[in-house]
Amino acid sequence: MKNAVAVVVLGICGSVFCATSCSDKQTEKDYTVYVNPFIGTGGHGHTFPGPVTPHGMIQPGPDTRIDGWDACSGYYYEDSTINGFSHTHVSGTGCADYGDFLLMPTVGEQQYDPQDYSSQTLPYASAFSHENEVAVPGYYSVFLDRYQVKAELAATPRAAIHRYTFPESDKSGFILDLDYSIQHQTNLDMQVEVVSDTEIRGHKLTEYWAFDQQLSFYAKFSKPFTYTIVRDTLADPKGKMQPRCKVLLNFKTEKDEQVLAKVGISAVDMDGAQKNLEAEIPDWDFEKVRSDAHDAWNGCLSKIDVSAKNETDKTIFYTAMYHAAVSPNLFTDVDGRYLGMDLKVHQGDAGKPVYTIFSLWDTFRALHPLYSIIDPQLNNEFINSLLLKNREGGIFPMWDLASNYTGTMIGYHAASLIADAYAKGNADFDLHDAYKACLRAAEYDTTGIKCPAAVLPHLMPMAKYYKNALGYIPCDLENESVAKALEYAYDDYCISVLAEAAGDYRNSEKYRKFAKAYTLYFDPSTRFMRGVDSKGNWRTPFNPKASNHRNDDYCEGNAWQWSWFVPHDVEGLVELMGGEDAFAGKLDSLFTADSTIEGELVSADISGLIGQYAHGNEPSHHVIHLYNYINRPWKTQELVDRVLKEQYRNAPDGLSGNEDCGQMSAWYILNSMGFYQVCPGKPVYSIGRPIFDKAEIRLEDGKVFSVVTENNSPENKYIASVLLNGQPLNEPFLNHRDIAEGGTLEIRMTGQPTRWGVKPVKAE
């Protein structure tokens, strides 16, 4: 984030010591007071409250849950016991992984043999109360009732520091659990070495969502210990023998004695973990680490300053800013080494960091467009990481986890990030290389891809072959055919933009035609996007409310939600549906239809329903803004207002679906300021309903773009008039350059729908 108000040591929404993004002056206003890290830890938000730094490599935090969908982040607000504090977590995902190197303080005889596999509680777990739990950006603490120990955690980008306040005891200690993981992952290899009476290091290789997740650690303790290493095998809940590896540490403590532990991690090796720790936490100054993390977060949050009468709205907003800066995660060690997509160690440049955790199916929609505004340099770092992964692994990742191809979700949305950066004039990468990588992703070609055999059909599905060879994807030959086809059409539009930029006019025309393929799935008789089989027939029976999770013609949705995914050609979709009035009628029915989802295995991701509109999952996120394209902007305004008020709350269950690595929050950030990008790759924002009296976006080179909302109130949700830099703006759209150059958008609100933004009827 290149701004005049920035942070000290730890960088902005990058991760490490970034000279280009930081100024010498600290931000005077404390934005962190408005962050509630517990938002999304209940319901199905799947966030975690641990003390991360912006885009940090390490994510230390409490683990309360092992099994089930709501264990994805390792923490669930409804739980009452803590199993310990592991050092890696994913934020807001719909799948689980991580939970590496769990540390738990103990007092008394250490228990570690499992007693109840049906419970979420390990034998050494402790009860706790939320009344004795604190989470703020960069710091977490909790009181462990069983042991009468206060636990505190803080973090740098690559290391964590723990501080535990013990009671008086001859039997104080820690359990360092290497075989612990979220959702009982397969531990393929675990190595541990006690270096001295204050140092331990180790390595772990795990198979789960990431088939080859490698991680090393180095830990240093402030108090000497004696130890016992437990290495054996034990039957898991399914009766399968699994290896165990735990280190039992013991020492004596006085009343209120503080014992500290420092832990560095690395995906490269144990030496890398030690270097990371020694570089970032050389001393035992817990408060300095805490303070530096706070300053890093304050600089990150200060990129946007909002003014509001309602303090709750500010809490939701800055928590959204916080969640939007948790991932992607730094993956480069302090010496520049990193684990590549080929699962080999590479020597890179620490000043040009590599990142992991790219949930692109989610984040291409709003998170990366947000960063294209508030930190285009960081967004380019993300893109360059993806280009590097393409070179190392043979193709862009769809969902990169710890430099693993997971093959999760659909589409090839790296093309979206690249096209959007180019369209906005922010392309700090080799355009021709990026374009060639996008072409590679769009063609069916399995050669040279370095991934497990089980992943390859998902990473390179036959759908791409059918799309290119047949012109469409037959639903009897390929699962999720409609969703894949619609997303491919959008991504192919993005490729056409890049082809034209690269001067490849033949492919530009080819991919423009591919972008029109959505028309093949529209059934005029039902006016829904439907599956077409290899004989050219519509799939029957057809029920637009039906959902069979990841095993029908759609992806985490149904026909009601997917029939609107043509962001690159809204005008064409309107025409396909019979013109503006017919389109409006159909769109109205989306929000008024019965909210029942039918089927034997309904996707749990279909949530946050208003009619059949599902705000809790990403395919619906652009839909509200489609009214702006058909001369009914007041409907966009009232629906944006409704979603902002009803589906985002200052509560553990304050998100209507998974956080999804910042996408759910980025939607809120953009829409609460009054605009949203319907089609990344087209540098245009659709204007909705701002909820803040003023929002100042602090841009590069000291520029500021302000959205000033006059006559603002909960009741006044409609736009009466708009001025852009003092000149009337009579259409509900805003260009990216209008924001990037700085200026002021003045929006006057009223309590009744108006004709603002409606195109005048042309005279005959």
Notable traits:
764 residues; alpha+beta; Beta-galactosidase, Chain A, domain 5; 18 helices; 25% helix; 24% strand; globular; disordered N terminus
Structure in words:
There is one protein chain. The chain is of the alpha+beta class. The chain has a domain at 37-298: Distorted Sandwich (Beta-galactosidase, Chain A, domain 5). Helices cover 25% and strands 24% of the residues. The protein has an eight-stranded antiparallel beta sheet with strand order 6-7-8-9-16-13-12-11. A hairpin with a 2-residue loop joins strand 29 (609-610) and strand 30. The longest helix is centred in the middle third of the chain and has 21 residues, at 481-501. It starts with 60 loop residues before the first strand and ends in a 14-residue tail after the last strand. 58% of the residues are buried.
